[in-house]
Amino acid sequence: MAGDGLDRGPVDQGRRSLLRGRPTAVPAPIHPPWSHPDYFAALCTRCGACAAACPEAILRPGDGGYPEVDFGRGECSFCGACADACSEPIFDRTAPPWALRPTVAPSCLAVQRVVCRSCQDACPEGAIRFQPASGGAAQPRIDEAACTGCGACVAACPAGAVTLTHRTGTRQTGSPAHAD
């Protein structure tokens, strides 16, 4: 029961919505960089070594105890400590770290005509720029070629409007992004 002092862990919003008759799409989890999605779940022992090694502290236990990236905690520096700490052959450091793309939701302050460029200021690659749009309000535009998927923009957004999702047409799949 609520209020009984027991920690029941995070609420699974996808399951709760399904049980209420309002199913919602749950985004695919983002596992550590260089982890291969084809055999990640089969080989990961959920030991937590990757999370303990992460100097950015962005890895946390997710569904089933598998490590997931929480960009709300910060960005990935691509240091490779997570891959180095893992004793299983899960990581492929010859490939790109992951195929993520930023998505900007309508709740973005700039989209709502409030001056904000926090995501642009936080982006170490300069992949986010603001361009004037009709009505004079500058809108975020993402240079996907410059974006590394580090997640710096996610934690910086005061409206929580920036998320990273798996790119389509690559070794990982996901939903399309708002980009130009």
UniProtKB/TrEMBL annotation:
NCBIfam families per record: napF (TIGR00402)
One Pfam family cited in the UniProt record for this chain: Fer4_7
According to its UniProt entry, this protein's organism is Azospirillum endophyticum
Q: Where does [4Fe-4S] cluster 3 bind?
A: C147, C150, C153, C157
Q: Does the keyword Repeat apply?
A: yes
InterPro entries assigned to the protein according to its UniProt record, in alphabetical order: 4Fe4S_Fe-S-bd (IPR017896), 4Fe4S_Fe_S_CS (IPR017900), Fe-S_Ferredoxin (IPR050572), NapF (IPR004496)
Q: Where does [4Fe-4S] cluster 1 bind?
A: C44, C47, C50, C54
Name any cofactors this protein relies on.
[4Fe-4S] cluster
Reply yes or no: does the keyword Repeat apply.
Answer: yes
Q: Which gene encodes it?
A: napF
What binding partners and quaternary form does the record give? Interacts with the cytoplasmic NapA precursor.
The record's keywords, sorted A to Z, are: 4Fe-4S, Cytoplasm, Iron, Iron-sulfur, Metal-binding, Repeat
Show the PANTHER family listed in the entry. ADENYLYLSULFATE REDUCTASE, BETA SUBUNIT, FERREDOXIN III
Name the SUPFAM superfamilies on file. Answer: 4Fe-4S ferredoxins
Q: Which domain of life is it from?
A: Bacteria
Q: What is this protein identified as?
A: Ferredoxin-type protein NapF
**Record-stated family:** Belongs to the NapF family.
